[in-house]
Amino acid sequence: MMPIWTKSGKKHAVTLLKVQDCHVLKYISKEESGGKTSKLLVGGKNTSPFYKTESAMEIFKAAGVPRKQKVTTFNVTEDALIKPGTPLYAAHFRPGQYVDVTAKTIGKGFQGVMKRWGFKGQPASHGQTKTHRRPGAISTNKAAKVYRGKKMPGKMGNIYRTSFGLKVWRINTKHDIIYVNGSVPGHTNCLVKVKDSRLPTYKDCNKNPPFPTFFADGDEKLPEDLYDEEIFQFTDPSVTY
Amino acid sequence: MAAVCGRLLLRSGAAGAVGFAAVLPARTRAFKNVYLFTGCFSSSGYRVSSNGNAAKFQPPPKPIIVDKQKQKEEKRFLSPEFIPPRGRKDPLKFYIERKDMIRRRKVFNIPEFYVGSILAVTTADPYASNKASRFVGICIQRGGRGLGATFVLRNVIEDQGVEICYELYSPRIQAIEVLKLEKRLDDNLMYLRDALPEYSTFDVNMKPVTHLDHEEIPVNKLQVRMKPKPWSKRWERPKYNIKGIKFELPEEKMKEAQKWSQPWLEFDMLREYDTSKIEEKIWREVNEELKK
C-alpha cells in the first residue's frame, strides 16, 4: 500500500495490484452454463504443470497456455467475447474507473465470539467466575431452540469477500500494475479478482473503456503511466493555494 | 622539496646541485659544523651514476595533490526511507516507489539531515494569511519508509511545546532548509518532551549555520536534564537505550531499571537485518537516476 496525493493536497492510501500472466482460458455459452449470460474462464499467475491430474490440465492445453494457479469465471455479454488464449493486461482498466475487488480474507483459524462477531464479553472483575470472553445467552426461553445461523465461535477468515466501488487512480502499463483506492481483502501477494463495479452509482463511470479488452499487439501505444486527472504527479511543482 | 634544494645551495655553495641529499652531521670533532652529503646528488658538471655510464637526467617526481572533491564523493548518505523493511513484499513495489521518490527529488530538493538537526519547513496552508506557514524545530524522529516517510519537528513557542509531523514527499511542502546540521547521541529524541523546556526551544528567526561539505557531521554529545518524574515513558529502562540524558536518579532506581534488560537480544540472529549491501545497491541506483 502506498500514499497518493491529489492536486488539492489531500492524501489517499492506495493498494497496488499486479496483473501477472492473465489469459482467457475458455468460453462457456449461455445454454451450456445455464445462466443468464455467457461466461469466460480466466486464469492468472503461472505455476508448475506437475502434481496435477490430466483432466485438470485439459483446459490449459486447449487454450495453449501454461498452467495457472487460479481460474475464475466472469459473466460477459455476447458482444464482449474474447478468443481463448488472449493475454489480458492492466491496461484493460483505465484511471477514473471504479472496480470491485474479490479475494480470500486472511485466515485467522478457530476464533472466539469476541473476535469473530464483535461481542462485548463480560467484565474482567466484580465476581465474574470463569466468564470473560463467552457469548452469554444463545436464545430466549420461548423459542425453546437455537436459531440456525446463531453467531458462535468457529473458523474465521479464509473466505471470499469483496470490496465494492474502489477507484482506479493510476495504471502502470510497463509492469502491469493497477493502483486501487483503499484496502483490499487478502494478505500481501495473494490472488485477487478485479471486476468493473456493479454499484448503481458508478454505472456510467466507465467512459470509453477498451472494449472488449486491451490488445497489446494492437495499434494504440499507451504511455508507461496513466494517471487520473486529480492525481498530483511528482514531476509538477509543489501545491500552492 | 624546493625548500630543501634551496637550503642545500646555500650551505654547499655549489651551483647547479640537483637531486636528493640526506644531510647528516659529521662525526669528527674537528669538523663539527661540516655536513656530509650522502645519497644521490649530482651537479651539472659531474653526472656519473653508480655503474659508470653517463646517467640520464631524472626529473623530480611531481607533488601529490589531494583532491578534496574526490574525498567528498566517498562520503555516502542514503536517506533512511529508501531502505526497504524486511518482509514478504515484492521488491518490485519498492522499486516503483523509489522511482516516484526520485521523480519528486528531482523537482524538489530534500536536503540531508539527521535526528537532532534543526530544520525550517514552509508548507502551503489554505487558511494562513500568506497561504504559507513556516515552522522551525529540532527533528526528533524520522519514521516511515518509501513515499510515506515522515519526520517530527519539535519547538517550544511561547511556553507551549509544539510538535509537527511532516511527510517528506507531500506536495504541500514548499521548502525544507537545514538551519543546523548535526547528529545527537540517540536516534530518537522523544525524551525531549520530559526534558526541561530550554532544551527544546529554538529561535524561530535563527540564521542557518554553514556546514562545509567535506567536514564530518558534528555529533552533539549534549546530556539533557529532565523534569522531575513521572515521565511519559520510563526512559531509564534499557529498552530505549538512551545515552543523551543525564540521569539524576538514585542508584537503586537505575539498578531496578536494569531488571528489564534483555541481554540475549543482541545475540538473536533472527533479528539481524544487515542493510549494508542493500544500501550500496540502492545508493548507486538512486545516484545514477538523480544525475540524469
UniProtKB/TrEMBL annotation, chain A:
InterPro entries tied to this protein: Ribosomal_uL3, Ribosomal_uL3_bac/org-type, Ribosomal_uL3_CS, Transl_B-barrel_sf
Gene Ontology CC terms, in alphabetical order: mitochondrial large ribosomal subunit
Primary location: mitochondrion
MF annotations from Gene Ontology: structural constituent of ribosome
Intracellular or extracellular location(s): Mitochondrion
GO biological process, one term: translation
Keyword annotations from UniProtKB, A to Z: Mitochondrion, Ribonucleoprotein, Ribosomal protein, Transit peptide
Pfam family, one: Ribosomal_L3
Keyword Disulfide bond: no
PANTHER family per the UniProt record, alphabetical: 50S RIBOSOMAL PROTEIN L3, LARGE RIBOSOMAL SUBUNIT PROTEIN UL3M
Homology family: Belongs to the universal ribosomal protein uL3 family.
Protein name, UniProt field: Large ribosomal subunit protein uL3m
Natural source organism: Eurypyga helias (Sunbittern)
